[in-house]
Write a structure and sequence with these properties.
Family: Belongs to the glycogen phosphorylase family.
Protein name: Alpha-1,4 glucan phosphorylase
Number of strands: 25
Radius of gyration: 27 Å
Strand content: 15-25%
CATH topology of the largest domain: Rossmann fold
Cofactor: pyridoxal 5'-phosphate
Structural class: alpha/beta
Bound molecules: ligand 26Q
Keywords: Carbohydrate metabolism, Glycosyltransferase, Pyridoxal phosphate, Transferase
Number of helices: 33
CATH architecture of the largest domain: 3-Layer(aba) Sandwich
Catalytic activity: [(1->4)-alpha-D-glucosyl](n) + phosphate = [(1->4)-alpha-D-glucosyl](n-1) + alpha-D-glucose 1-phosphate
């Protein structure tokens, strides 16, 4: 914890402002005030950062490197202040200086270097590792443009580039002296030197990987870990721009552009793989730079390369960084001159892999021709890994060609990244119990049979520091008052709140806090969308990526049905609802874009119909991102987690809602199952097909969307409304959704679950009317949410996968 008193802080801040902007604080605008505060906080952190690195070096304990294509950090200022233990002091000091801290925090650009769950999980893990004093560093790409900004224009998503670095980034430090060279293309010359083969990469295109370090501050423990993001630059002096003839100048520019394109932009697809060459380059770029710098540091600290696996753990976040496996082999064999067998032992022991999805369309595979051309030496290594491994398979499964070809790393002209990740690592984990079971029993069954001990589950978690303390200060205060503050360091202590759930006074305060959060969100909705919402209505929220399997369509169809029933019966007995959506569609995913259009059209229709709009409002908020989630989630009464069972690996917003006292309506998918197991059936509303039913439909068929359409008049009515022109003057507008539901036999079982979903929603109304019961449910959810802190998850990774000791027991 940083010990600094208010007066010192005030002086420091004024000085920092003057130094940075060359004028008095009173003359500055809020943006400048933000920059000065960020820069000051970074100064405060600097010494702790150095000391942390010294401690780690001295202790010589195992270091964990979390490799991820995505880190979705959101804003840093508020959480830095919170973790330093000075946020309240700063707030007070600034307020005495006439500055509103929250207004200043609001000016920070979100660091949006991720698509959704996977990237946000990486960010929560960094926070937990630092807070648990685990020597864990992040390694990724410093995209110049993050995840696109979404504007909703005329009811459609419009993508705008996210130029997040435009105004500078106070948090990062460029470490030019720590740059590494990454080599692409060219060819490999094999030479026999004294009876030993050596591999020389020639005619390659060199790329300079320059690291930018961001401090990751632990919670009141003086620990500052590092997130290292790599940026691609041309290798200096490679071309002398000024003296070259025009032709060569153009060549030089082409080289510059080709290099810079590598870290230019984050791919905005999730759960869908496209074999783009640039994406493969991105993957190798950061993995190669990251591993070289790890080895360089390791050796500089006097490490013995043969003990690398005892001192270093490298975790790969999905298959995107799988090239870490052949890259580590390359360094160990080509540079460190270890035998293949020894290098392989070290590599397998060092690397561990998390799978985040079972969607077949998300499995990465690269055409061998492309792979060979871009990464000639790495391809040779993958071939060698594959040959040795297939030999092992052949010995075990002699003659079973189908099986061997299914399990091979290279087959049918592709390099299969999941297969490489499983073979080259010592641990493969899923992210929720059901997901891991499906991996073991179905998707990866061949591999589970071959290597049963590699497979394990690590149910996801979220950092309660951002998703409770920071985003819901009023609730945090209530908890502190009632159960003390031990839950901050030990989130399982939230269960002490159970003892207070019969106290009407506590429940009514809980309710009041929710109400206050709803009022704030309602103001924002009015300001940004011009929609007036009733803060006494149920705030019914579905915020996440827009995707077929997440079934925003199911939510839409029930709104359309509700609208029908309200028109039929204006005095319909229902609790008023405000149904809030937010989320981005991948730019090339036309069904998802069509779903956004449907949400917006429904919103337009019902919000402007005076016959229903006292009872029903629909809102699609623009540009869902971490900082918006921090405002929406504390204001939610109802959390919609309605994915087709088996499709959502875990989900993590489900945990955030629960921790903020929302009730969940859910299918038995991903971590929803574990939430149900924690809170009990009476404190969550479950509906829909279970995993076996879905898997059996997939296996044996037998589902007909047309049958449901023909036999269920309410389903028929809403489906017909999609193409009747009722919600949009263009009757063809929702053709994609219509086709997906009927022509393609409703691959996500929307119609199959429709009735059950309506029943479940009815049940929500009934419970909500019994306010005492509802409030108690909210309290039960909060009290059981501690297990979903990412601190629990990270401890499981540390002990079960990385074997890294918790270093400094100063907790
Ligand atoms: C792959 C290849 C090319 C371009 C993009 C991609 C790509 C990018 C991002 C593939 C997948 C992703 C992200 C996946 C993701 O976020 N999965 C989610 O991970 C969460 C954390 O484990 C889970 O809670 C969610 O259930 C899961 O959907």
């Amino acid at each position: 914890m940083l010990s600094i008193d208010k007066d010192t802080f005030k002086k420091d801040y004024e000085n920092k402002f003057i130094k940075l902007h060359g004028k008095e604080l009173s003359e500055g605008n809020n943006q400048q005030k933000y920059e000065a505060l960020g820069a000051l906080v970074k100064d405060y952190v600097a010494n702790m950062w150095i000391e942390t690195n010294k401690k780690y070096k001295k202790a010589g304990d195992k270091q964990v490197y979390y490799f991820s294509m995505e880190f979705l950090l959101g804003r840093l200022l508020g959480n830095c202040l919170l973790n330093l233990g000075i946020r309240d002091m700063c707030k007070e000091a600034l307020s005495e200086m006439g500055i509103d801290l929250e207004e200043i925090e609001d000016l920070e650009q979100d660091q949006g270097l991720g698509n959704g769950g996977l990237g946000r999980l990486a960010a929560c893990f960094l926070d937990s590792m630092a807070s648990l004093t685990i020597a864990g560093q992040g390694c990724g790409i410093r995209y110049k443009y993050g995840f696109f900004e979404q504007k909703i224009v005329d009811g459609q998503q419009v993508e705008v580039s996210d130029n997040w670095l435009r105004g500078g980034n106070v948090w990062e430090t460029k470490k030019a002296d720590k740059a590494e060279i990454v080599k692409f293309g060219g060819s490999v010359k094999v030479e026999n030197v004294n009876g030993k083969l050596s591999f020389i990469h020639v005619n390659y295109e060199p790329v300079l990987a320059v690291p930018y370090d961001t401090p990751i501050v632990g919670y009141e423990n003086n620990i500052v870990n590092t997130l290292r993001l790599w940026s691609a630059e041309p290798v200096s002096n490679e071309f002398d721009f000024s003296s070259f003839s025009r032709g060569e100048f153009l060549k030089a520019m082409a080289y510059k552009n080709s290099v810079e394109s590598i870290s230019l932009v984050l791919y905005p697809d999730d759960s869908f793989y496209e074999g783009k060459m640039l994406r493969l380059k991105q993957q190798y770029f950061f993995v190669c730079a990251g591993i070289q710098s790890i080895i360089r540091h390791f050796k500089r600290c006097g490490g013995n390369i043969k003990e690398l696996d005892e001192k270093i753990a490298i975790h790969i976040n999905d298959t995107h960084p799988t090239l870490a496996i052949p890259e580590l082999m390359r360094i160990l064999v080509d540079q460190e001159e270890l035998s293949w067998e020894e290098a392989w032992r070290i590599t397998q022991n060092t690397i561990s892999y998390t799978n985040h999805t079972i969607l077949a369309e998300a499995l990465e595979k690269w055409p061998t021709d492309m792979f060979k051309t871009i990464l000639p030496r790495i391809y040779m290594i993958v071939e060698e890994i594959n040959e040795r491994y297939c030999q092992e398979l052949w010995n075990k499964y002699t003659g079973q060609w189908d099986k061997i070809s299914r399990m091979a790393i290279i087959s049918d002209g592709y390099v299969k990244m999941a297969n490489l990740a499983i073979v080259g690592s010592h641990s493969v984990n899923g992210v929720a119990k059901l997901h891991t079971e499906i991996l073991k029993k179905r998707e990866m069954a061949d591999f589970y049979y071959l290597y049963p001990s590699k497979f394990n589950n690590k149910t996801n978690g979220i950092t309660h520091r951002r998703w409770l303390l920071k985003c819901n200060p009023e609730l945090t205060n209530l908890l502190k008052e009632t159960i003390g503050d031990s839950f901050i360091r030990h989130p399982m202590d939230l269960d002490k709140f159970k003892n207070h759930l019969d106290d009407v006074n506590i429940l009514s305060r809980l309710n009041q806090i929710k109400q206050n959060n709803k009022v704030k969100l309602a103001e924002e909705i009015y300001k940004t969308k011009g929609i007036k919402v009733d803060t006494n209505s149920i705030f019914d929220v579905q915020v996440k990526r827009i995707h077929g399997y997440k079934r925003q369509t199911l939510n839409c169809l029930r709104i359309m049905d509700l609208y029908n029933r309200l028109l039929e019966n204006p005095s319909l007995d229902m609790v008023p609802r405000t149904i809030i959506f937010a989320g981005k569609a991948a730019p090339g995913y036309y069904l998802a874009k069509n779903i956004i259009e449907l949400i917006c059209s429904i919103a337009d229709k019902v919000n402007n119909d005076p016959r229903v709009n006292e009872k029903l409002k629909v809102v699609m908020m623009d540009n869902y991102k971490v900082s918006l989630a921090e405002r929406i989630i504390p204001a939610a009464d109802l959390s919609e987690q309605i994915s087709t069972t088996t499709k959502e690996a875990s989900g993590t917003s489900n945990m955030k809602f629960m921790m903020n006292g929302a009730v969940t309506i859910a299918t038995l998918d991903g971590a929803n199952i574990e939430i149900k197991d924690e809170v009990g059936e009476d404190n969550i509303v479950i509906f829909g097909l279970n995993a076996d039913e879905v898997l059996n439909f997939h296996k044996y068929g037998g589902y007909s969307a047309w049958d449901i359409y023909n036999n269920n008049p309410r389903v028929k009515a809403v489906i017909d409304d999609l193409v009747s022109g009722r919600y949009n003057s263009d009757k063809d507008k929702f053709n994609k959704i219509y086709a997906n539901l009927l022509s393609y036999n409703d691959e996500f079982f929307v119609l199959k679950d429709f009735d059950a979903y309506l029943e479940a929603q009815k049940k929500i109304d009934v419970i909500y009317r019994d306010q005492a019961k509802w409030q108690r449910m909210c309290g039960v959810n909060i009290a059981h949410s501690g297990i979903f802190s990412s601190d629990r998850t990270i401890k499981e990774y540390a002990t079960g996968i990385w074997d890294s000791k918790v270093l400094y027991k100063n907790l």
